[in-house]
Amino acid sequence: MRIYQIPNEITTELKINKALYLFDLFLIIGLIVFRMIALPFVHSSLVWPFTGFLVLFGLFLIIRPTTNPQKRMNQAILYAMVRKKDTYSAIDYEEEE
Asked: Which keywords fit this entry according to its UniProt record (predicted)?
């Protein structure tokens, strides 16, 4: 009978260094590739604003909010927009401990 080792945790993201995750690195590479593909379609006077927009957009997607560091900024804003604002949900502090 074969014995397989099953990892205990597979949801943890892979860190490259203290602040950069593997998903963030792929996102940066994807934005660079997107810029290279889209650059011929951008007017020559708008190349630097387009690059600046992509840099700011990439930083926005990578930054993690201090209130919820497990999620990315775009996920936190999406949850804030989608949640029901007229309902109240109590926070049970005894469960967190």
From this structure: Membrane, Plasmid, Transmembrane, Transmembrane helix
